[in-house]
């Protein structure tokens, strides 16, 4: 009798698994129980490969490790969205919103369809490269790295995932740019120079005095100004996406915030709005933006910078 014709299971001690020839599949079948006492089977062309696999399962069981995800077909999107909801009670609300925004806008669009249990370090590092090409800086990519690390660390600790691919992923470098305050004399000179142009006066106040990022400035709408309570809400930004152009996106922190407005800032915004209304009739589109482009559409950062240099 040849080895291929063996049909009975090779008996092993309890919990050690079994190997037998499957006539139907024309393969060697190996089966074993994991640490959750769940039975798993796999087919091999060679008996030696089946023996090796069974040995790996037996060692993992003895060490108390899992070699299977509880849902082996779950995608990265399914895994991360389930994780963030389960983990929500362990983090602050702002952190939850930031993590969820990172998952939905910076991870799922790129690797969301991949198998979560089989996610390779190469796929994760490619994700970082893709994000850099899209214009994301090191700090934003590092948040992606942190979210993935927290998710997989938690999953492995809870025996939901068999391995942590993040252990072999290089932490992305963060481009550190030190922030320097504008000297008071320069600050006053800039404001005085800009005061002759209602648009530039308002733009300098929002960008320099309030400390908003350029994308957040471009995303501001007049509806964000609460004239009665003297405050400004920042809940979106304008970003350029390769192949799609400029569009609204959530703010980088993923958190809506408000800034109090003093009387002089409100006066500058009101004056800017008055002169903007005189030009509104010639616009091609009106998105309700405080700082739109010449035709009322999104303002390109290069055009904004050019106008600033002129003043």
Estimated radius of gyration: 29 Å
Query: Could you state the order of secondary-structure elements as H and E?
Result: EEEHHHHHHHHEEEEEHH
Number of separate helices: 10
Distance between the termini: 93 Å
Mean pLDDT: 82
Order of strands, main sheet, comes to 1-2-3
Q: Helix coverage percent of residues?
A: 40-55%
The unreliable regions are 1-7
- Share of β-strand residues: 5-15%
Largest sheet: 3 strands, antiparallel
By secondary-structure content and strand pairing, the structural class works out as alpha+beta
Number of strands: 8
Shape: elongated
Describe this structure in words.
The protein is an alpha+beta fold and 311 residues long. The protein contains ten helices and eight strands. α7 (198-209) crosses α9 (263-279). The longest helix has 20 residues, at 138-157. Residues 1-7 have low confidence and may be disordered.
Secondary structure elements and their pairing?
Layout: E1 18-22, E2 27-33, E3 39-44, H1 47-63, H2 76-86, H3 93-111, H4 121-133, H5 138-157, H6 184-194, H7 198-209, H8 214-218, E4 225-226, E5 231-234, E6 236-241, E7 245-250, E8 257-260, H9 263-279, H10 301-310
Antiparallel strand pairs: 1-2, 2-3, 4-5, 5-8, 6-7
Helix pairs in contact: 2-3, 3-4, 6-7, 7-9
Put the structure in a nutshell:
It is built from ten helices and eight strands.
Using brief descriptors, characterize the structure shown.
10 helices, three-stranded antiparallel beta sheet, about 300 residues, disordered N terminus, alpha+beta
């Amino acid at each position: 009798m040849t080895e291929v014709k063996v049909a009975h299971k090779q008996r092993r001690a309890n919990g050690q698994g079994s190997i037998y020839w499957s006539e139907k599949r024309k393969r060697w079948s190996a089966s074993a129980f994991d640490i959750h006492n769940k039975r798993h089977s796999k087919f091999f062309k060679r008996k030696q490969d089946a023996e090796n696999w069974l040995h790996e399962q037996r060692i993992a069981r003895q060490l108390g490790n899992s070699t299977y995800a509880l849902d082996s077909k779950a995608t990265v999107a399914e895994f991360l969205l389930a994780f963030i909801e389960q983990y929500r009670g362990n983090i602050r609300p702002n952190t939850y919103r930031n993590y969820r925004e990172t998952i939905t806008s910076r991870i799922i669009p790129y690797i969301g369809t991949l198998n979560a249990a089989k996610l390779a370090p190469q796929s994760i590092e490619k994700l970082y490269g893709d994000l850099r090409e899209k214009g994301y800086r090191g700090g934003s990519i590092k948040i992606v790295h942190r979210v993935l690390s927290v998710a997989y660390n938690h999953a492995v600790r809870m025996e939901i995932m068999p391995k942590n691919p993040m252990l072999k992923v290089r932490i992305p470098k963060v481009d550190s740019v030190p922030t320097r305050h504008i000297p008071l004399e320069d600050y006053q000179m800039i404001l005085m120079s800009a005061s002759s142009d209602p648009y530039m006066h308002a733009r300098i106040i929002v960008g320099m005095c309030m400390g908003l990022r350029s994308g957040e400035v471009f995303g501001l709408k007049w509806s964000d100004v609460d004239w009665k309570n003297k405050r400004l809400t920042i809940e979106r930004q304008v970003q350029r996406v390769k192949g799609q152009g400029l569009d609204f996106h959530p703010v980088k922190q993923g958190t809506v915030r408000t800034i109090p407005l003093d009387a002089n800032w409100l006066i500058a915004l009101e004056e800017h709005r008055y002169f903007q209304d005189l030009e509104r009739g010639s616009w091609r589109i009106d998105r309700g933006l405080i700082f739109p482009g010449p035709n009322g559409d999104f303002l390109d950062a290069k055009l904004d910078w050019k106008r600033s240099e002129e003043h």
